[in-house]
Amino acid sequence: MSYRLSLIIPCYNEEKNLPILFDRCRDLPADIEVVFVNNGSNDGSAKVFEHELSHHSNWRLVHVTENKGYGFGILSGLREAQAAILGWTHADLQTNPLDCLEALKIFTAHPQTGFIKGSRYGRPFFDRIFTWGMSIFETLILGKVLWDINAQPTLFRRNFFSQWKNPPYDFSLDLYAYYMAIHHHLTIRRFPVLFAPRVHGTSHWNINWREKWKFIRRTMGFSFHLRTLKRRKQLQ
Length: 236
Fold this sequence. Notes:
This protein is an alpha/beta fold. It is 40% helix and 19% strand. It contains eight helices and seven strands, in the order E-H-E-H-E-H-E-H-E-H-E-H-H-E-H. Helix 2 links the parallel strand 2 (32-39) and strand 3. The longest helix is centred in the C-terminal third of the chain and has 23 residues, at 209-231. The model has no long low-confidence stretch (mean pLDDT 92).
């Protein structure tokens, strides 16, 4: 079957969220391939996946034995995806996988669009402040306007993905994809998506200021790396 979209959903220790996530994904049409990535989970996720995925011909599972990072899980799914349009979203239920349908409408209405990303609303005040600060920092360092970098979903065409060289394995993948879209002069469109509270579990980085600082340091380091590649004209 020819799919319109392959949607990658990386899952790390989301056992309790998976049944709700599956319920939402059942409302996706059959011409959307859903690629779940069991990204090195050490909870009971594997059994939940085994029970559910056999019932859906357009659902697939990529099993990663060791968690090497959020970005590694997404990249593992993207490499197995079959559609001409690729994308990803989160498994924590803070964004709805059905948001990808609105993104597909944008691709249909505006065929020149090369990159689509959500724009979050409904977030706590201090999380918005954190995002504004990081957006300002990235914009100043990289010389391009970058805002709400980690918003979901993220969609693009396969030929854009084929141009990526050495993408990062951690949360910097969102920044990398967004910046590369700007670097390649793709037409970028954003659309509003509701960002809801988690149903089960906790964030793997947005827990406290100590973990946020680790996230900031990693992101800053990768930002300077991108700027160095840009100055040396080593970005493909």
